[in-house]
Amino acid sequence: MSPTHSHETNRPPGRYAAIPGPPAPPPSFLEEGPFRILCEIEPPRRPDIEHVRHQIEVLSPVTDGFLIPDNHLGRATVSSVSVAHEVAYMGGLSIACMNARDRNLLGFRRDLLTAAAYGVDHFLFVYGDAPKEGRRTEDLTVRGMLDEVRSFGTGPLFQGYPDFRIGTVAKVNRPLGWRTRADFIFVQISYSLDRLIRWRESLTFDGKIYAGVLVLASARMARSVNASIPEIRIPDNIIDKLDDGPHVGVDLACQQIATLKESGAFDGVHLVPVGRFEEVAARLATVR
Question: Which CB contacts under 8 angstroms, 24+ apart, belong to 138-144?
Answer without folding.
Answer: 139/103, 139/104, 139/105, 140/100, 140/103, 140/104, 140/105, 140/108, 141/100, 142/100, 142/168, 143/178, 144/100
